[in-house]
Amino acid sequence: MDLVSKYNIPAPRYTSYPTVPYWDNNLNEEKWIEHIKNAFIKYNKDGISLYIHLPYCESLCTYCACNTRITVNHKVEQPYIESLLKEWQLYLNEFEGKPLIKEIHLGGGTPTFFSPENLSYLLRSILSTVDISKDHDFSFEGHPSNTTKAHLQSLFDLGFKRVSFGIQDFDEKVQDTINRYQTFEEVKQVLDDAREIGYTSINFDLVYGLPYQTIASINDTITKIISLKPERIAFYSYAHVPWLKPGQRKYTEKNLPTDTYKRSLYEEGKSLFLSANYLDIGMDHFALPNDSLFDAFRTGSLHRNFMGYTTNTTKLLVGLGCSSISDSWDAFAQNIKTVEEYQKAVSDGHFPIFKGHSLTEEDLSIRQHILDLMCKHETTLDENYFDVKEKFSEFIKDDLIEVTPEKIIIKETGKLFLRNICLAFDKRYWKKVPEGNVFSTTA
User: Fold this and answer.
1) How far is Cα 212 from Cα 11, in angstroms, rounded to an integer?
2) Given this model, what pLDDT does residue 59 score?
3) pTM recorded for the entire structure
4) What angle do the packed helices 215-228 and 184-197 form, to 10 degrees?
5) Chain-centre distance of CA 214, in angstroms?
6) Distance (Å, whole) CA 273 – CA 286
């Protein structure tokens, strides 16, 4: 059996540990307030992160697994912004001092659904209440087809220097199937605009494993992308989860590449990136040597949280907006997912959380192992390893890892199976292996 077939199993992407399906849901509003107050006292001096979820899109991309709201009614912008500001005020009321913001990320949805004026109003309102770290990193996600020069300029004027554009694929048949359209010319124009304004790091999101993708189509897409030289590329594995996202039922498994062919798509892309001087940072991510993401990987300061890989290690992450997840390091809390219920909770003066988890000492220890594997491709040996040692025997036999007296070190081939290796540490998963579909497959 080849390694792809052997290890192509459902597994988390580990933007947290424990993963959301294994939260104890032992957190109410009162406990969450206690957690964030303590976290602010401990960690604000080092800076905190702020994630803002803007869920609106004008059309549904059928591949997407994000929490979105589809509408062409832009009158929803202002009321939603006011709810975000009310939620932020709830946090300010509990913090003992002025927040020091190290990181802001606008995600979605499509943040550029919102007008430049409304985004500017939202951010100026928040920034007027905080101090900004000297080494701050502000970023946002944009759709190439609706990100205007005014969007780019307004956000740049507020300190944003990094932008991520969702490209996915340039092939017309693939775009039609996933209902995601942008031309190469549109992408080039928005990238040229960003660079002219002064953005220093531009990321392109690409997805492999989409319906009707071929080696030829992925080669064409990536060759075009490389010609534009974005500083970062996220090359994500398509997660087929129609039981969670009904939009994916527009096509079937028959339209998707086989596991082996899907891996070939990844290998084709990776080969092209490496030949163009991009460096393999970790799961799905590539960066040019002059980008801060590579520098963070090289110096061992790369971090991973609910926003994915980040160059800033912050231990307090505040998530604003429906479905956002906050992290106080010793607890997680997720907001209500529907817009109307989220807005009502905030309007009533409540933190709009609907589930959460207080981490145990064992959780914190395993979390660190998984973070180290994800960000440094190695971790130290301790009792957690020896508790699950037998799960690593196949990785050793398949030459995916090296185990020394002090460390587990992931080898080059092992990077392809990073999620599988992290899964071996996941004690909560092994105590209760899920029945049915919970996670996407690793290949």
Assistant:
1) 24
2) 87
3) 0.93
4) 20
5) 26
6) 7
Q: What average pLDDT does the segment 256-269 reach? A: 90
36-65 b/e with 16+ CB inside 10 Å = b?
beebbeebbeebbbbbbbbbbbeebbbbbe
Q: Where are the alpha helices (DSSP H) in 13-53?
A: 29-43
**Nearby residues of 402 by Cβ (< 8 Å), 6 or more positions away:** 396, 408, 409, 411
Apex 275 CA angle, 271 and 277, nearest 5: 120
Q: What is the rounded CA–CA span in Å between residue 162 and residue 203?
A: 8
Are residues 425 and 384 in contact, defined by beta-carbon separation less than 8 angstroms?
yes
Q: Could you give all domains of the chain from N- to C-terminal order, each with its CATH number?
A: 1-18+360-443 (1.10.10.920), 20-358 (3.80.30.20)
Higher-scoring residue by pLDDT: 133, 385: 133
In the prediction, which pLDDT does 1 show?
54
pLDDT digits (tens, 9 = 90+) for 176-226: 888 888 899 999 999 999 999 999 999 999 999 999 999 999 999 999 999
CA nearest neighbour of 121 among 77, 184, 59: 77
253: alpha, beta or left? (left if phi > 0; alpha if psi -120 to 50)? alpha
